[in-house]
Amino acid sequence: MTQVITSIHDWVLTWHRELGDKSIGFVPTMGALHAGHQSLIDYSRKDNDITVVSLFVNPTQFNDKNDFERYPRNDEKDISLLGQWGVDYIFMPVYHELYPDNYTYKVSESSFSTQMEGASRPGHFDGVLTVVMKLLNIIHPDRSYFGEKDFQQYSLISKMCEAFFMPIEIIMCPTVRDQDGLALSSRNALLTEEERKRAPLFHELLRSSLKAEEIVKKLNESGFRVDYVVDYENRRFGAVYLGNTRLIDNVQR
Q1: Of the listed 9, 16, 34, 37, which one is catalytic?
Q2: What is the pTM of this model?
Q3: Labelling 37: which of 47, 79, 185, 197 has CA 20 to 30 A away?
Q4: Which residues of the chain have pLDDT under 70?
């Protein structure tokens, strides 16, 4: 039976101790769950004795208050899905316990985090790295799972764990897409019906042989508002707006 835990104290002093030598897989989420999250959970359940999933919409990674307020939330549905998906523990911390310092201490990276998402959303990765380090230090997993769609995030978290000698394996799992190619994202629920029909063009152009500047031009002509399309090392990264909804994606080249 899936256990819901809201107290850091209860997890650290009670539940975690009872697990003994069982291996723990951890999937951090902000809820609004979909098949992409289920895929991460499936990988964790295959690799580990116990799977823990967190549900926490982290305010420190939102540089736009309106974006934070609009982020889709449905705890009751998420808890039900996690039970169906075979998760052992759901961790649902509250802000004042997770941030007793009210975010006066934070984790920062000074190079890759300033590019692409970091350039467009100042402070975003400080919030991501800080909350992930907190969650990893609380849960103490053997492995933690992240989607390839957020490759920049995965890379920063993986290197953070290396830099701070955290004995946790950070595992990247393939992006899950709808049949039309759109990467699954909690934000997709915010798209209008007409926007959802146009959205697959984003991935289609990213994976094309066109140059980045040509892709930007075509997206703008098709009703997208382009934040960036960047070729970096062996990947092409992109971020766009459709209406008020921001979408990100990347493809290996």
Answers
A1: 37
A2: 0.96
A3: 197
A4: none
